[in-house]
Write a structure and sequence with these properties.
This protein has 562 residues and is α/β, with parallel strands linked by helices. The protein is 23% helix and 13% strand. The strands form five sheets. A nine-stranded parallel β-sheet has the order 6-7-8-9-10-11-12-13-18, with no helix packed on it. A three-stranded antiparallel β-sheet has the order 3-4-5, covered by helices on one side. Strands 14-17-19 form a three-stranded antiparallel β-sheet. Helix 2 crosses helix 4 and helix 4 packs antiparallel against helix 5. The radius of gyration is 46 Å and the shape is elongated. The termini are far apart.
Length: 562
């Protein structure tokens, strides 16, 4: 009586419904890597697409390969039991493998083939790793049971777990799918040189690309690393200590023992040794002015006096944290518009320079909110721009020893101004808006003020009024909004300098102008004497929009003096 053919063996009379690919075992046996030579660390985890057990078997040599039976070597009657034994053998090889041991789970592992075993240092997540290992064992047990059930049910014979993950997976309803858990090997807590797979991230050995030591005598050096690709810039270091450190870096890069490196013991720095960011710099001579070095970006107070500067250094304009800038006693003739980019600037001292004008662009920049102190004394300024009154944050203004012929007509808009000094200029009178100021200290000494004469008016009336004059008065009196998007720019400037009559009405180019006397104590608490005679009075302009307004003022003036 002949033995019935194996239901899983291909034959001419009977073929399985889902045969296993015959070339699977041959191809996988070719993909299994040979044993690694001693001294090379095997890769932890899947090797060439195989699960961790296959990598362990490959590293263990022929012993591991013999523990994985082929499909044709197991008789049909004992195949379910053989599958159980094969799976148990795979798990045993995975647990006891010396090349692909588990890390950070408290078990012994060796990072070099044939090397001594050692216990990995504990990690914070060691408990979670152990739980994942147990879950992986549970999944493999379930896969083993499903494989055995598939064999009993007459489906295609599944391959062992270490082979199924590498070759093409069988398809069909009776095919079992196995998943090998792939975990990442974490060797970052081990000292460099243990796992032997090249330079570790952040290490020094074979990781220094170049050392820049050109300025080592000045306490500066740069260490360029390969991984991570960064430059370590060292500055303001002790020259002897810096050279010792660079020598130690070279030896560590060459793989020298850490015991022979010329390193001093690490001592915590004292609070007095830690250099705080520099916030103040004072330069009072040309030889001390930095020509090659840049200014610290943390500066808040910078003084560069007596340096014979002809213009403002562009490096100064990059100090965004600057609060006080002192450029006094230099030869500066013009201010750049980019000076208004210093958004934190509160004090600007341009005393004793060669300035001939103050830029209107600065008045429209961020300085109109931040600037509180401005010193333009001892320059050659003859007039301030109309936009100057937009610096409404000014508290103290110094205009002494210039050639001013007039003050801004809208100076009354400087509502925060408390200290004003315009001594030794060429002011013949004060603007009519001057009476709106509320000062604590006022100094107008040394100006050639005119003697006021209300009976000699400067008449600029145009009768009848032009259409432009009527429209301008209506716009100002009724506070109609206007701007450059509605009116030409020159008309907007005319409206901004419109005069104000004693009656409160506005007048543009048709008015009557006189000068009257004003006691300066009406606008300031402390007044410096105007002249050597001890006077505290000064002439101020006065405007009238019509003959009626001028007549009423003249009557009151004659009655008060009569």
């Amino acid at each position: 009586m002949s033995t019935p053919p194996c239901p899983l063996t291909p034959s001419h009379s009977r073929r399985p419904s889902r045969p296993f690919p015959p070339s699977r075992t041959i191809r996988l046996q070719q993909e299994v890597p040979a044993a690694r030579p001693a001294g090379r660390a095997p890769r932890c985890g899947p090797a060439l697409g195989l699960p961790r057990a296959a990598g362990a078997a490959a590293a263990a040599g022929t012993a591991g390969a013999a523990a994985l039976p082929s499909r044709s070597a197991v008789p049909f009657s004992g195949r379910p039991r053989a599958l159980h034994r094969a799976a148990d053998g795979i798990r045993a090889a995975r647990r006891a493998g010396t090349a692909a041991g588990r890390h950070h789970s408290g078990r012994l592992c060796a990072h070099r083939a044939g090397g001594p075993r050692r216990r990995c240092p504990p990690r914070a997540g060691r408990g979670r790793d152990r739980d994942r290992d147990r879950e992986g064992d549970h999944d493999r047990d379930q896969d083993r049971d499903r494989d055995a059930a598939a064999v009993r049910g007459g489906g295609a014979q599944p391959a062992p777990a270490h082979l199924r993950a590498a070759g093409p997976r069988p398809r069909g309803a009776g095919a079992a799918v196995a998943r090998a858990p792939a975990r990442r090997c974490r060797c970052r807590d081990l000292p460099h040189g243990v796992h032997g797979a090249g330079p570790r991230r952040g290490s020094v050995q074979q990781n220094v690309e170049r050392l820049f030591t050109r300025f080592v005598e000045e306490g500066k050096a740069t260490v360029r690393l390969r991984e991570p690709a960064v430059d370590l810039c060292l500055s303001k270091a002790n020259v002897i200590n810096l050279k010792t450190f660079l020598s130690a870096v070279r030896l560590a890069h060459q793989g020298s023992d850490t015991g022979v490196l010329p390193l001093s013991p690490l001592v915590p720095a004292k609070n007095s040794d830690v250099e705080k960011p520099k916030t103040k710099m004072i330069i009072t001579s040309r030889r001390d002015y930095p020509l090659t070095k840049s200014f610290p970006f943390s500066l808040e107070h910078l003084q560069t006096s007596y340096c014979k500067l002809a213009r403002i250094d562009t490096r100064v304009l990059c100090l965004k944290k600057l609060r006080k800038l002192d450029l006094s006693h230099n030869h500066i003739k013009q201010l750049p518009a980019t000076l208004g980019d210093l958004v934190c600037l509160q004090e600007l001292d341009l005393h004793d320079n060669h300035l001939e004008a103050f830029s209107g662009a600065l008045c429209s920049s961020s300085l109109q909110k931040s600037l509180q102190f401005l010193d333009l004394s001892q320059n050659q300024i003859q007039a301030l721009p109309i936009e100057f009154c937009q610096l409404r944050g000014l508290v103290q203004l110094r205009l002494d020893d210039n050639a001013l012929l007039r003050l801004p007509c809208r100076i009354g808009q400087l509502s925060h101004l408390r200290f004003l000094s315009a001594a030794r200029n060429k002011l013949p009178f004060l603007p009519s808006d001057f009476r709106k100021l509320c000062l604590e200290n006022l100094d107008l000494f040394g100006n050639p003020f005119e003697q006021p004469n209300p009976l000699v008016p400067n008449i600029q009336l145009k009768i009848p009024l032009t259409l432009l004059e009527c429209a301008a008065r209506a716009t100002v009196n009724h506070r109609i909004p206007y701007g450059c998007h509605l009116l030409p720019s020159h008309l907007c400037k005319d409206l901004e300098v419109a005069k104000t009559c004693r009656c409160g009405s506005a007048c543009l180019s048709s008015f009557i102008q006189i000068t009257v006397t004003m006691n300066l104590h009406h606008v300031a608490h402390t007044v410096v004497l105007v002249d050597n005679m001890g006077g505290t009075e000064a002439p101020i302009l006065c405007y009238f929009c019509s003959l009626d307004c001028y007549s009423q003022f003249l009557d009151r003036h004659l009655q008060s003096n009569g």
